[in-house]
Amino acid sequence: MLGRRDERQLAVSIDEGRGRVVVLVHGIASSSVTFQNLVPLLTPNHRVIAIDLLGFGRSPAPADAEYTVAEHVDAIARAIDRLHLRAPFTLVGHSLGTILGARYAATHPRRVRHLVMVSPPLYVDPAQLGDPLLRARVSVYLQLYKFVRENQAFTLRNARLVERMLPIPKAMDINVETWVPFIKSLENCIESQTTITDLVNTPAPVDILVGALDEFHVPGSLDGLARLSNVTTRVVPGNDHLIRESMARQVAAAIDPA
Predict the structure, then answer these.
(1) Number of domains in the chain
(2) AB hydrolase-1 domain spans which residues (predicted)?
(3) Cβ distance 91 to 105 under 8 Å?
(4) 56-88 pLDDT, tens digit each
């Protein structure tokens, strides 16, 4: 029988190229296929490593997991430790991966030289928001996520329809097998996050990129981050939540600025 440590050993789905290391962490209900447009832009000059999150892709889904930020980050940290990387690396997170990346960067400051957050689903407790419009917008998203979690048949049926229309196969993979990791990660990471605090405690430079058409971005949610001296935000025209080719080029430019 596998021990607890083995049951939470994440799969390294991609390890290609040579040069400075870039570690990629995908989003909720997805896998390392998220980065199919980005990896070819990075491998000529970087060693590119992509890790599948707990419960998704080729990684295990332990029966006792609650899929909290702490659990996800602990599993990521152990996967990175097994790689025996000698120098600080660039950490790129997409969607849920941005929340986990911010926590990892805040708690492992000597490991991360640069944090890149792509399509971050940033939501603050509405009760803490003074702007009534922003408070209302965030409340709507959180109510929607609760509905998604509490209505499995509806969510699975519509997820299959959406998945067929995506240009990246399996970029969203919500099914019976991933249901528990999906709803628990949604509730325990995205709906109850401390990402802003984690960014305040992150010493590394941070680039945040969000698509102008991102379905999960709340307008105004990035405004407060402008006050952080190490954070740069940019909006990518014509891009939604996925890392399409235009977003991939912008991410690659953020990693290797001209």
Answers:
(1) 1
(2) 21-163
(3) yes
(4) 999 999 999 999 999 999 999 999 999 999 999
